Amino acid sequence: MSTIDKTATVPAPRENSDHNGPLLEVKDLHVEFHTRDGVAKAVNGVNYSVDAGETLAVLGESGSGKSVTAQAIMGILDMPPGKIPQGEILFRGEDMLKMSDEERRKIRGRKIAMIFQDALSSLNPVLSVGYQLGEMFRVHHGMSKKDAKVKAIELMDKVKIPAAKARVSDYPHQFSGGMRQRIMIAMALALEPDLIIADEPTTALDVTVQAQVMDLLAELQREYNMGLILITHDLGVVADVADKIAVMYAGRIVEQAPVHELYARPAHPYTRGLLDSIPRLDQKGQELYAIKGLPPNLLKVPSGCAFNPRCPKATDLCRTEIPALVPVTEQDGADLPGRKSACHFWKETIHG
Amino acid sequence: MGRYVVRRLLQMIPVFLGTTLLIFLMVHSLPGDPVLAMFGDKGADPATLAAKRHELGLDKPLWQQYFFYMRDMLLHLDFGTQIRNGLPVTDVLGDAFPITLQLATLAFAIELVFGITLGVIGGLRAGRLADNAILIFTLLIISIPVFVLGFIIKMVFAFNLGWIQPNVSTEPQWGELLAPAIVLGCLSLAYVARLTRTSMAENLRADYMRTAVAKGLPRRRVIGVHLMRNSMIPVITFLGTDIGALMGGAIVTESIFNIKGVGGVIAESISRREGSTLVGLVTILVIVYLVTSLLIDLLYAVLDPRIRYA
Asked: Any idea where this protein resides (chain A) (predicted)?
């Protein structure tokens, strides 16, 4: 695993704000979907925070609630059927869930922007990319069509799209997958937001392009000192760019840790399972480990720890009591800053 | 693009020949005799009939009649004359077409404005009360035949309430044509509403709509620019073919309200076995239809950049 530059060490706060504390703080967030078959509890009390210039990776398999949390932060959940029964989303200390629609709209795109997974379907097929990029400036800054186009070309240059000037009037389907994702990034970056949420930005791309896109994202993040929430299920992507990781399972965070410590010593059996299922060159020819079973049905989450039916170490305690997310310490009781685990047996998992 | 237009125009030639031949054969296979019909119930002696037939060229074999007809049409732009009163078909059409155009414009405006409005309302509130009310309304209209709807409107508004004249005058004002235009536009209005509604409701869930919201665009812009541009594409196709159909005149509606439009002339020509008038009219209408559909296809590329013409 390569070492990374700690993006948090880059100085220069970007805006004068009275608020000292994390840029974004999610507190005890719950999201549920009321469907015909019952209430699906997609997010059950998530807590995390991101500082300016910091990258938080949210890791988890499909249906673990990582995207839903992001959509709740953006305010783009479909409500109904979605509902946020409790929780707070503090942006610069202000609870966004209590804001009016208009206030939230002004934050979207300008302060918090989002990069979506599939750039082809996420870009409007009948509008030119120049129009879609320029729209940000026209709507939020009231720029003229002509000025917005100049800005759009600048943005396309910024994300290294060749011949930006010639391609500004092209449509999304005329670009390659990697270029499209660059356009998505340019669009999120347009108004230099404080926070970017990237929802599996590289999933639809091939491996070489993945690396290019991630490098670009990391570079721009450093340049603008933005906070970044990177949602992914790709452990390889995370290792290179993230500062800290939150692992989600069945709508809960099961482990939180600085990136390298998590890889070195996981404190939750689920994280260990994820790490063991990465193919490794030194274990060529051996059978690859896989976590047995299926992700839980969100309509009927197992009692106790949601991971217990698939956990190799589950005991009766795990089937009855939900483990809290508790700080993890060294064997001698010394603090491990930023580390938390939601397992009854974290001690055995990390030290054993 | 240019090559595409040329190819489409060339494709019109076989379509044009085929439709005229078909109409020609169909008219001549109808029972009845236009020359006999000229003299009414009294009839005439066989010599006069034969002389008249010879004068009109009706005694020649069918293929010759078709050949001469086409030759006159293509070389001299002569679409033939009406047998009954000797008027050139172009003059007959020249009188009838403006009225049909007026009626078609009004009907088209009604279906465009109300159809899309209802569709947008239904699409944005899919599954709720307004959507269901519109669904019932449109289904009702689709299931009522035009002649029933026409008669109901005529009965209620002309005879019972006396708001409108039962028959439209020969030089109709816009106001007079409102009731027939509603009858004519109603069916398409319902289709436009259903089509718009479905298209909107479907695109509302598209990923790019989520992106548009995430960009912090106001709702008006999200709906008006991002949703509408995508949702209108299938609706435009339907409206395009409908323009062609409306130009062809509305036989039933025009006869209910006694409008002297293209539909009325066609109905009259069929009942009098006026082959040449009918073929002339239909030929001109086929050209109108082909040109409008070409224009719509070209408009398509403007609306949806993914469509390429080669």
From this structure: Cell membrane
